[in-house]
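User: Let's play a game. I give you a shape written as tokens, and you guess the letters that built it. Ready? Here's round one.
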């Protein structure tokens, strides 16, 4: 193990099969989650966040469907 840490560790717990990307604007960060698995992937939010594709608030456990995408907005 090389000791790398996830940049979203304070916000989310994400399984290995989910690819994660982060983009930022002046007033928000956007977390893109891509599930490349044929099974649903469970994530855990450590604080309340808005999922932009559904408009739902994620404040604990959520699932990304098989081959699904989530875009989460974090206000700065």
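Assistant: Ready! My guess for every position:
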């Amino acid at each position: 193990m090389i000791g790398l840490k996830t940049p979203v560790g304070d916000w989310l717990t994400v399984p290995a099969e989910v690819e994660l990307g982060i983009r930022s604007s002046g007033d928000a960060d956007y977390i893109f989650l891509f599930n490349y698995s044929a099974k649903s992937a469970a994530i855990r939010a450590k604080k309340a966040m808005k999922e932009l594709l559904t408009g739902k608030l994620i404040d604990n456990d959520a699932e990304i469907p098989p081959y699904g995408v989530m875009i989460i907005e974090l206000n700065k």
